[in-house]
């Protein structure tokens, strides 16, 4: 009888050990997932910032983007191509972040700031032209998001804060 009791106690201690180990593994997996999510957010944010910064990384490119924003029809040849590729890159980077937000990687607060930036960008006249030409390259969910940005942007007039020529 005594050996049966000792054996039962050993089984009980082993069961508690297994349960404790499973809890520990679950905690470690959760911590790992949090770390992966934060790394993903950092990576996507850095990629988005790099994509956007290409719009003004040289005076020549900044001029192409400025002209494209205002009146895309004034751009010809290589300048039009550069503008189209740059704007499409921003839309694609935005789509990547939007997808991660849909899957819970980005929280609503962080995505709200990015969303406003995309709204400001997407509603520029030249960006709208590129969007119409390239929207079919994006997911239906992102297409809906950009169309909602357009709807919000239609309620504003865009006067760039850096335009000192018109400052009075």
Question: What can you tell me about this protein's structure?
Answer:
By secondary structure, this protein is mainly alpha-helical. It has one domain (39-157). It is 77% helix and 0% strand. The protein has 6 helices and no strands. It has helices at residues 2-53, 59-70, 77-102, 108-122, 125-134, 140-153. Helix 3 (77-102) packs across helix 5 (125-134). The chain is rod-shaped, with a radius of gyration of 26 Å. Mean pLDDT is 76; it is low at 160-164.
Question: What keyword list fits this structure?
Answer:
rod-shaped; 168 residues; 6 helices
Break the fold down into its secondary structure elements and pairings.
Layout: H1 2-53, H2 59-70, H3 77-102, H4 108-122, H5 125-134, H6 140-153
Strand content: under 5%
Mean pLDDT: 76
Radius of gyration: 26 Å
Q: State the helicity in percent bands.
A: over 70%
Question: Which spans of ≥5 residues are poorly predicted at pLDDT below 50?
Answer: 160-164
Strand tally, please? Answer: 0
- Number of helical stretches of at least 4 residues: 6
Q: Tell me the number of structural domains.
A: 1
Shape field? rod-shaped
What is the makeup of the main sheet? none
SS-based class? mainly alpha
Give the H and E element order. HHHHHH
Distance between the termini: 98 Å
């Amino acid at each position: 009888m005594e050996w049966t009791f000792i054996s039962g106690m050993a089984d009980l201690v082993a069961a508690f050990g297994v349960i404790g180990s499973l809890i520990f593994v679950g905690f470690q997996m959760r911590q790992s997932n949090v770390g992966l999510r934060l790394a993903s957010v950092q990576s996507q944010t850095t990629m988005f910032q790099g994509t956007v910064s290409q719009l003004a990384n040289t005076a020549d490119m900044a001029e192409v983007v400025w002209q494209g924003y205002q009146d895309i029809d004034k751009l010809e040849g290589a300048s039009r191509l550069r503008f189209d590729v740059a704007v499409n890159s921003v839309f694609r980077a935005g789509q990547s972040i939007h997808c991660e937000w849909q899957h819970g990687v980005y929280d609503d607060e962080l995505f709200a700031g990015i969303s406003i930036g995309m709204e400001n960008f997407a509603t520029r006249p030249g960006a709208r032209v590129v969007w119409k030409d390239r929207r079919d390259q994006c997911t239906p969910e992102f297409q809906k998001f950009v169309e909602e940005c357009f709807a919000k942007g239609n309620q504003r007039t865009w006067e760039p804060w850096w335009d000192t020529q018109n400052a009075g």
